[in-house]
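I would like you to help me understand the sequence and structure tokens below and explain how sequence relates to structure.
___
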Amino acid sequence: MTDQAFGTLTDIISLHDELTPNACALSCDGESVTWGELHDRVGRVAHALTCLDIAPGDKVASLGAPSIAHVVGLLGALRAGACIVPLPTSATGPALDGMLDDCGAKAIMVDAESRALLGSFEDRLRTNKIALDFSSSNWLQLGDMISGATPDLPLARIVPEDDFNIIYSSGTTGVPKGIVHSHDTRMRQALRRSFDLSRASALLLATPLYSNTTLMPMFAAMVHGAQTILMRKFDAARYLAIAAAQRVTHTMLVPVQYRRLLALPDFDQHDLSHFKLKQSTGAPLDAALKRELSERWPGRMIDVFGMTEGGTTCILDIGAHPDKLHTVGQPAPAHDIRLIDEEGRVLPPGATGEVVGRGPFMMTRYHNKPSLTEEIRWRDEYGQIFHRSGDVGRFDADGFLVLLDRKKDVIISGGSNIYASDLEAVLSQHPDVADVAVIGVPSEAWGETPLGLVARRPGGNVEAAALREWANAQLGKTQRLSAIEFRDALPRSSLGKLLKRELRAPYWK
């Protein structure tokens, strides 16, 4: 390595192999590996990838559900010096094709369940194809790669600024923005003390591997020598059974998962007394749910507001501030968060404006999108870079942030970001559609869900159910419209701007 004071994630896994080789590092659906086994497999995958001419800085993509093989593949790519690109399994085939083309992956790792998502463009892939858990012609098998390689490959030369990962926003129909994090950012995230992790901790995760909701706490657990327990697919009853049996101490979930857990009739019969810290992220956590979690589930409960790009993170310790449940908390340690007006001027205390922030865990850039990278940035009078959140809010007298509206037209459903413009682009292609707007409306199950508001062309006679089915057939599974409603016309300003706030208002009273 270039800088001996800088340690990578795979360096630390090597250290755990030396100190506690027989301790459990990772488990998923009945399978588990020790730190010694994990270190060995990661080294072998790294060696096999270098034999495929994967060099430091190259991109290695993956597509699949959480599994030990999937994590081993990602860690092996990192040890080889590659930049990992976990692709969203919620995306459509054409969207995945666009992401692979955008990142220029030299290899892709896929599991059997997700292979069908590649669709017709699988045969057109001009990259190394690695099967995580199946056998097929023209595919390399990860198991064969591990058994035929040595674990003693010298570590790749990595410096703090090197690319660690590209995370694409999930569920879009076009090519979404690829968020690039450096090794330095990921290590500082993982080392922070706010997770309160140790070798005695057990972290249970039940969100996809392409999500920062999973990656961030998982890497932190690995750095601190804690055990990580992955669920291939979330099931509320099974989650509680695992949490009780494994004496889980930590978790990170999205609000819809907490809601489903608390709704189980036997929730209070499970022993959750070993929990030290629960965190929620990915979508707003309403005050009633915050209160219920604090009262019924032992251990600290933290609401995390922020974005994968970093910079705007706020933390609400629910038990410590029961009178602030209507807020998203205070700026996280080492974060500078401000409010600005439409002209980019900093607003005084008590004013309402767009939330911008900077902190120690900010992305490097949007991959291949310099103009969008510059668009998200705001600079203060000293030239320091802040990230624009697109959220509108105000700070109360105690410095807690109250969110009022979203400037960005993003619907957050079940922890996934859904971009209304993607859904509108699909609906507008129907011959009977003259004008369209997609908005988020309240949903007990998902927090909010997309609703299509449509003005039909003269003579158009498509029915709402038929139009919804037609559009959903072209959308990713997390994007799908919950309903279609027809309007004679959609409200627009004198400049032709769609007045979505007017459209949303009746549903959010």
Notes: Residues 1-5 have pLDDT under 50 and may be disordered. Residues 35-51 form the longest helix (17 residues). DSSP finds 15 helices and 27 strands in the chain. Residues 1-8+34-184 form a domain with the Rossmann fold fold (CATH 3.40.50.12780).
